[in-house]
Amino acid sequence: MTFVTNMNGDAFGIPIAIAIIIHNIPEGIAISLPIYFATQSRTKSFLYTFLAGIAEPIGAVIGYLFLKQCTDSFIGLALAAVSGIMIFISFDELFPTAHECGKHGEVIIGLIAGMMVMGVSIVFCL
């Protein structure tokens, strides 16, 4: 996504890159800690977290190679499709699991807070 938004200029690419950097910190922690506590190996924890993290830039380069010749309309449709897939996964998989664990209220609060953060960040980035 950073590649695609940066193709048309830094105005959108830099804020998206910063958002992804901020997002990757808790993502890395969420990957490494369970692996460390399951294996008691810092090496395995680092290796698997590194492999998960390096997949993103490799995927970005591959995506860029496929999308560099595409029109803005196609890229917009592709980003919309990816967004729809992520929303579907959240509602189809994550919400029911959270409800089974008795955390339904916290999930709804997190959803609303996330929407507010995204809305505010979009307003400030434009």
Textual characterization of the structure:
This protein is mainly α. It folds into two domains: 1-69, no CATH class; 71-126. The chain is built from five helices and no strands. The protein has helices at residues 2-6, 10-39, 42-67, 72-100, 104-125. α2 runs antiparallel to α3 (42-67). The protein starts with a helix and ends with a helix. The relative contact order is 0.08. The mean pLDDT is 81.
Give a quick set of tags describing it.
5 helices; globular; mainly alpha; single chain; 126 residues
Q: Into how many domains do the coordinates divide?
A: 2
Helical percentage: over 70%
Please summarize the sheet with the most strands: none
Determine the mean pLDDT: 81
Shape, per Cα inertia axes = globular
Helical/strand content category: mainly alpha
Offer a quick outline of the entry.
With 126 residues, the chain is an all-alpha fold. The chain has helices at residues 2-6, 10-39, 42-67, 72-100, 104-125. The protein folds into 2 domains: 1-69, no CATH class; 71-126.
